[in-house]
Amino acid sequence: MHSSRMNRRRTTSGLAAGAAIAAGALVLAGCAGSGGGGGETDAPAGEQVTITWWHNATSGPLPAVWQEIADAFEAAHPGVTVEQTGYQNEDLQRTLIPNALAAGDPPDLFQVWPGGEIRDQVANGYLMQLDDLIPDTIASVGGSIAPWQVGGKTYGVPFTFGIEGFWYNTELFDQAGIAGTPTTLDELNDAVAKLRAAGVTPIAVGAGDKWPAAHWWYQFALHNCSIEALQEGAADFVFDDPCWVQAGVDLQEFIATNPFQDGFLGTPAQQGAGSSAGLVANGQAAMELMGHWNAGVMGGLTPDETVPAFLGWFPFPAIPGSAGDPTATLGGGDGFGCSATAPPECAELLAFIMSPDNQKKFAASGSGIPTVAAAVGSLEDPNLKLVAEGLANSSYVQLWLDTEFGTTVGNAMNEGIVNLIAGAGTPEDIVKRMQDAAATL
Amino acid sequence: MTLQRSAPGDETVAIRTDLHAGRRFDWGQPFVHFLVLLLCAVAIGPVLYVVIGGFRTTADINAAPGGWPDPWVLDNWIAVLSAPRFWGSLLGSVILAVATTAGVVILGIMAAYPLARYTFRGRHGLYTVFAAGLMFPLTVAALPLTLLLRTLGLHGSYLGVIIPSIAFALPTTIIILVPFLRAIPAELEEAASLDGASRIGFFWRILLPLSRPGLVTVGVLAFIGSWNGYLLPLLVISTGTLPQELWPLPLGLTQFSTQYSQNTGAVLAYTSLAMIPALAFFLIAEKRIVGGLTGAVKG
Amino acid sequence: MSSSEAVGPAVSAGPTPARRRSRPGARKRVEIAIFTGPALIVFIGFVILPVAFAVVYSFFSLPAGFRWEHLADPDRFIGIDNYVRALTTPEFLRAIGNNFIIVGLSLVIQGPLAIVIALLLNRRLRGRSVYRLLIFVPYVLAEVVAGLAWKLLLPPNGGVNALLESVGLGAFTANWLADPSIALWTLFAILTWKYIGFAILLMLAGLQGVPEELSEAAAIDGASWWRIQWHITLPLLGPTIRIWAFLSMIGALQLFDMVWVTVSPSVRGIATETMATYMIQQGQFAGQPGYGSAIAVILFVISLTVALLYQRFALRRDLRGAITDRGN
Questions:
Q1: Best interface-test mutation with A: which of B262, B271, B281 has the largest number of A CBs within 10 A?
Q2: What is the pLDDT of residue C67?
Q3: pTM
Q4: ipTM > 0.85 (yes/no)
Q5: Distance in angstroms between the alpha carbons of the first and the last residue of chain B
Q6: Does B156 touch chain A (CB under 8 A)?
Q7: C128-140 vs B28-53: helix axis angle to the nearest 10?
Q8: Residue B71 preceded by cis peptide, ω within 30
Q9: What are the chain A neighbours of C282 within 8 Å (beta carbons)?
Q10: What is the pLDDT of residues A419-430, one digit of tens each?
Q11: CA B33/CA B162 separation, integer angstroms
């Protein structure tokens, strides 16, 4: 039995070692994270205050800009610590923030999405009202504040806002013999055909992530629906107007011209060189319909990490004979808001972020178009200037429809659109899904 | 141990571990080797791709995804190994995994012992309670769980990940351990009681050593489960005040890969390094499974 | 221990309880309580309780950022509406179908494959322990890691297609992850790659319990290797196989991580949705926690039903006299 006695001793000492490690680990674990949740401020005003700040900047030049601003605020306000963290966008918007709000322990300053989400958050009393605290800041962003207001009161301030358009490769257009840029849908179809003939993938779409494909439908809806129909949909989830179905019909016709890259259902929008942005950035596709952040994204996906020199921009072409307002555009932006339980320093931080000097830094970094008018002049990227111009010339900016309608209807709508472009759904299905989803709210 | 058997006729069974290859030529043996090598190639092919990819520049990868490094670069590895966030994440993962494994093994064997070898009313019910836990994956309980953790003040801490991880690993552990324990013959227990040992003594001195293979198995599973866990750390740790440097590896990896999404080479390097500790642990544990089992059978 | 006793996992019928009567029942109860207590407390507190809450949520219509107060709002209580909606939604029914397809494929393909490989690895091969380690590597990898690796290998211009072309199988290249008609098969292949190591590990552990003396005796009598496996080893491996099948089925029904990480959301919604991914998509990303909780409960019920049926009909022999008999 010699061996089994040895086994016993080894097992016993093994167990004892295991127990010791476990005990030690538990002690460490308790110490390591016992700070509790985010957003707690233990000290009364005048003493140590910690502000937690969550945003979606994880790559490119923007994280450094935010860090710089946070450090500057700390320096100017002794006793205040700012902890800023960048999270992946979907994680932040769909999981982290809703869960934190639901559990009653949210961060102090965080990214607030306009449209349906901010309306839900205000209805639940999650957000701090900002009108009396930072009125100058609110005034400085002009009309773009509107999507961040609910019931006439302001609950968030946008730092960037822009419209959607085509980011295209001027060199490939030249190669395919396309003169200028398309101003009507027919011209766009023409350009697609020429690019195909030249052996170039005409349009890249990140349909894998659902929303990039959905934006095509949003554009067709915008061009077919009157402003009233759009507002009716947003306010009451009424989609009876035939324009909503027409949008799907138009999209089907467009897809029949074979404009997209192969396997577009699996292509992501922004991750890696195989994404739709990466394809255009590396010259493997000629255009992409995308929001104003795309220049910065593309800049990160090239081998030398600069925005390609061949990049140009043009707005979505008009559809002659359509019922929509031709001067209306589709756009969106990002903004920050404070939670209702945040300390007053949070509003000060927000005002500091929105100050013209800091917004000039934001504009100069090429991360997007600032909302603060004084900072627009600091834009360096020529394409962003074009976008800003397009924004200024819009009579009405419709928010991305999935943002406008909120998560539930938005998700159902996007799924219906993906089914359509995969050939598994009809234009009527999309509207039905939206109506069914709205009925569950 | 060397054992040679052969039978006359065409059915030759060569069972050997010594190295005199070629003395008896068994068609089965090279064929088996070939098959197994093929399987191994498929198994580790993607892993090798990731590791080799770490030696490539991102431009190289984008230009030819399926090619060899050209040139071979060490920059990615240096960048990752010199990043404090990597070592911090490694430490975090180690703490979580060790604590979870210890908890699972200790609580699991303790609970499995009465379930396997005592008879009492409610034993079936108790076993069913644990087995029913298999029906609910973590994803399902995630939201209510995070609310509960905040109420208990465990949110944002390692304990908030360790304790639920232990809880969710218990059903598999108990289901694996109970048959192991049941298989130990009653005669051993009778002999032990004749020698004057109590049930606890039997547990401590005889049952535990004999169940080592089972313990190692559940320990390995628990370690790997904790090491690779993503959802729970995402909901508990990343939303807390713990600095990013101490986030466990899967979280750290996703943060890294979104922050450096254009730098595929660095992401591959980080990924490769993240695999190593779990592999090392398994290598150590795997020998003990074989050794322990052989010991148990041979006495 | 004499070699005449059959030793192996779950083979014997279990110890006879004869000695128990001589011990005081109270002491036994205390021992049981102390031994099972900690596990029970942790389990009930962190698994059962949250699950119970999820059941409660399923009867309500809840917004994305909901709080306790919403549960007190009578307008939000909608009874079984969430369940009716789930069971009449084609996407969810398709997801259930996908889960069962994967269950079937796992049992029919992964099981026999794992057994054969385990039998091969159980022979005295040179380098056996190295092989075992290599085959288990995929299981050890995190899902995030594995998903990332396969995503890089499977695009049309990726490593897999490059490999096929280099060995002359260029006709078989495909857009593995982006083509909805083959995405489910691609997924199953990846799942097999990832999880077969676990099956092999279990089988190997079970094989260790098969006494070598039996195989040796049969070999002396002139039986070939295959005959030994078929007539002696496999039957003794039966209980292990049945346990593996149980865990494999439950795992297939609850499949989430690999699907979520590897397949793009669009392709997933069309071709490879599982109950769990549908639940997270609707409950979390579409902002409908009440509906998502109902899906979770349905997932639970399906898993439980399968588990109970399986335990009753397949596992009964292995646990005879121990677990499935009542009032013992």
A1: B262
A2: 67
A3: 0.80
A4: no
A5: 16
A6: yes
A7: 40
A8: yes
A9: 411
A10: 999 988 999 999
A11: 42
